Amino acid sequence: MFISFEGGEGVGKSTQIRLLAARLSALGHDVLTTREPGGSAGAEAVRNVLLSGSAEPFGAGMEVLLFAAARNDHVEEVIKPALEGGRIVLCDRFMDSSRVYQGSRAGSRRNLLQQSNVSRSTVSSLI
Question: Does the pTM of the predicted model rise above 0.70?
């Protein structure tokens, strides 16, 4: 089972994830908590590039591709193996946040659709 928690900064996503993880663990479930962007070694490296602001001069398209690369690594290296192993995965942000943050930055409807297609392709192995 995969559950993502979406929402703005400071709304309590991390708190809710921590509470649910504790409850599920107490019920005997094997739970993995993770986050985006980040969550795997490759995704953390990309996260550092994004947070540094060094990708901003290249525009929203570059950020979309970097987030997609980070998500692909996160899915393939962390999320997919955990799910295949029977774990419950709780993720602080996932695709919906990308749609909101990168989609609004991209501006046009066409760019939003391209971003959505790129994001979807990074998780196709889970669907």
Answer: yes
